[in-house]
C-alpha cells in the first residue's frame, strides 16, 4: 500500500489567506541532525519546509525516539501550536539540511481570532494535514501488521 500525497498549504488555502499567513514568516535553516522541537515542550511556532527532510518521532522509554513520519518540501511541521495546552505531541529532527519558513504561533492564533474566515481556513488546513497523517499512519501500520494475503483493504 502507498501513503496518500501530502496536504500542502498552497493546495488548500485561498490566495488571500496564504498571502496573509506568509506575511508573518521568517526564513530559517536547520543543519542536519538539529532537534527542531522536543515532545512535551511548549509549542510556540511552526514551519513549512522549503527544502530538506524532517522526521517526526515519539519518545520510547529506554530507547531512542521512534520515527513515525518523514516530511519534505511544502509540508507543515508542527500542529500542536493550534491546540491547548500548546505542547508538542511529537519531536522533530532535521535529517538533512533544512530550509523552512517559520511562523510565530501566538501571532497566527491572534490573526485567526481577529478574522474568523482566516481562522477557519487555517484550522481546516491543519485539520486536513492531521487527517492525512492519521491515514498515512494507519496504512503504515496495516503494511507492518496485517497478515500478508489476508485481503485487508482500506
TrEMBL record:
<dbReference type="InterPro" id="IPR018490">
    <property type="entry name" value="cNMP-bd_dom_sf"/>
</dbReference>
<feature type="domain" description="Cyclic nucleotide-binding">
    <location>
        <begin position="9"/>
        <end position="78"/>
    </location>
</feature>
<dbReference type="Pfam" id="PF00027">
    <property type="entry name" value="cNMP_binding"/>
</dbReference>
<dbReference type="InterPro" id="IPR000595">
    <property type="entry name" value="cNMP-bd_dom"/>
</dbReference>
<dbReference type="InterPro" id="IPR014710">
    <property type="entry name" value="RmlC-like_jellyroll"/>
</dbReference>
<protein>
    <recommendedName>
        <fullName>Cyclic nucleotide-binding domain-containing protein</fullName>
    </recommendedName>
</protein>
